[in-house]
Design goal:
Strand order of the largest sheet: 2-1-7-4-5
Distance between the termini: 73 Å
Number of strands: 7
Shape: globular
Structural class: alpha+beta
Largest sheet: 5 strands, mixed
Radius of gyration: 18 Å
Order of helices and strands: HEEEHEEEE
Strand content: 35-45%
Number of helices: 2
Length: about 90
């Protein structure tokens, strides 16, 4: 029976059923966060999930400061290090 269990698992793996992450882990401002069911997302998607939608922000991804125009294409992956700074005006 072990060979049939091995065959079943191998067949499912070949079809991609075991090639997903349960949750992607990234570090945001020094705190580890999990994003269930994802293996990557854009900075825009991450900000939306964090309810930090369109507002003035500075974002650093893996040590590289991003322009706001890069948020839609910059990809966050497992173990990425992200720093987010909210820009606040005052007087």
């Amino acid at each position: 029976h072990e060979t049939s269990a091995t065959w079943s698992r191998t067949s499912l793996e070949r079809l991609g059923f075991f090639n997903y992450r349960i949750a992607m882990r990234i570090t945001i401002n020094g705190e580890e966060r999990e994003f269930p069911g994802l293996d990557q997302l854009t900075v825009v998607e991450m900000l939306d999930i964090l309810d930090l939608g369109p507002q003035p922000l500075l974002v650093e991804l893996d040590g590289i400061a991003l322009y706001a125009r890069e948020f839609a294409e910059a990809l966050v992956h497992e173990n990425s290090q992200v720093e987010i700074i909210l820009m606040v005006a005052g007087g």
